[in-house]
Structure prediction request, 260 residues.
Amino acid sequence: MTNSARIAQMPLIENLLALYSVDKQVRGLTSRVESAKIYLNVQKRQLDEIKLERVENSQQRMQHQSHIATIETESGSIDDRVNHLREELNKAVNDKQYSAVLAEINTLKGQRQAFEDEELTEMAAVDILEDSAKNIKTRKAERQTLLNAATVELKTRETEIADQLVELEVQREAAASIIPEEALSTFDSIADDYEGEAMASVDVDDLKRREYSCNSCSLRISLDALTTLLGSSENIVICGSCDRILYLKEDTRQAICPSK
Ligand SMILES: [Zn+2]
Prediction:
């Protein structure tokens, strides 16, 4: 008898257990790659955030610097006007004219002072933004280093599992091929929902009082469910609480039904 023929003659629950075992190995291998992918994506996202921060910082610095340039132009015009007025002051022919020119000079000096104050505020803002730009640059370099390491790690893990995964996929395919379509789709959907944990054994809590529980969620299993399980290994019984496909280990079956 060939190996596959022997497998094909095993009851459904046995076949599901074989699939469960190889399916978990496949998931275990791919999960190492998946977690490396997730880690790499986190690094990429954080680097993008830092890049965005850098663009915003640079835009803000440019705005302040252009404002400073405007202030300096305005201050320059005021200085020119004041110099011109000083010459007029010297040429003033009467007190009234002199006072009028002097008043304008004083007004302009006030405006000049306001511009100077504003420029100092702007320069302080630029200083803060420049410090922050240095900090952003450091963080960007650090994040880039992490991202490079994460890229290498992902490639390494992918290479590590490649051969083993191909072999396991073949085994999984073979184990799945002998399971009826409906049972397989039940298994696959439960395995997908619970990261491969599709099956759970039945534990005997108290044989005399006929108390049994699900090994996955510890909740009590009804006698009806147990009877169905004992009746045939072709029956699929799902835990009402945690959705796992229930199975009886051989020693559990023996303990419950010593005759069989
Ligand atoms: Zn359960």
